[in-house]
Amino acid sequence: MIFKSYILEQNIQSADSKKIFLFYGENEGLKKEFKKKLRVQNKNQEILTLFQDEIIKNKNILLNEVNNKSLFSEKKIIFINQVNDKILDIVNEIIENIQDEKIFLFSDILEKKSKLRNYFEKSKLCGITACYQDNEITIRKIIMEKLNGYKGLTGQVTNLIIQNTGLDRNKVDNEIDKIISCFKDKKIDLKKLDLLLNIRTNDDFNLLKDEAINGNKINTNKLLADTVFEVENNIYYLNSINQRINKLNEIENMKKENSNIESLISSLKPAVFWKDKPILIEQSKKWNKEKIQTALKKTYNTELKIKSNSSIKKDLLIKNLIIELCTTASSA
Q1: Could you give phi then psi for residue 62, rounded to 5 degrees?
Q2: Cα(149)–Cα(147) distance, rounded to whole angstroms?
Q3: Where are the alpha helices (DSSP H) in the chain?
Q4: SS3 assignment, position 109
Q5: I need a labelling partner for 158 at 20 to 30 A (CA). Which of 80, 92, 165, 299 fits?
Q6: pLDDT per residue over 57-101, tens digit each?
Q7: Phi, psi torsion values for 115, nearest 5 degrees
Q8: Within 13 Å of residue 298, how many CA atoms lie on the same side as its CB?
Q9: pTM for the whole structure
């Protein structure tokens, strides 16, 4: 039986209504949040954490946990991590024996043809929810909810958090924890926030991105050789590029109303971060409507390849995209 993730976020008890529940998808931050909520909901119960590999090597581990009743609580909660289709036979074997126990499975992306996914979607005894990647709307909502009551929580502040985390819920939570610890008076100071967040960890890529979008081939080639691309940050890199191209598109659409680029950029809502203004002014001179549409198509195709092919070299796709954008920016 399929459950929508946003419904479970509001009421995690729905997951408790099924004997076995499967959370799958690319959003590690959301899966981590579901685990946290399940632990809180079952704080008085015995909670065990297992991995599929150890169960495959010795399936009696899980069978014994299901058959042996807990001495410490009324029911037993079992988390099983890193599952895939290999665990389906074991699920079939134990599901009828489950009484007071609750089993929660956590998996990466499962394709539509996955036997495990199909089983859970059709079974009345089981539940399943897809944990898809967050978008800018959901991340903004998380920031606004967790920092509710903080003075100085402007669009510029939320943009800074989003730019620094690349729509990664795990990173958003980490940055929000820092903000809560630093601004105990619940008054956010933008300059202090700039120093607080992990801006430096992404400085190299942001510099590379800006030089490429500005069409500077010499600096782009040099920075491509010097920049370390971290595998887990590929979506961040892509989102960072997309945000800048979309911002240039917004500027281009407003040029008819105001020919003064500097005042035009100053009028954008939400406001452009002060450090980005001079860079954006230079970039806007290199991009017209036709170039922007070409860039948007390239970023879309790159994102499609990254998300649809797990074996492809994603860092190479990002590097190729950067080279193509630099070439487009520098063309007449």
Answers
A1: -75, -40
A2: 6
A3: 5-10, 28-41, 52-57, 60-67, 88-94, 115-122, 136-146, 155-165, 169-182, 190-196, 203-213, 217-226, 234-254, 261-266, 277-284, 289-308, 314-330
A4: coil
A5: 299
A6: 888 888 888 877 655 556 789 999 999 999 999 999 888 888 878
A7: -65, -40
A8: 21
A9: 0.60
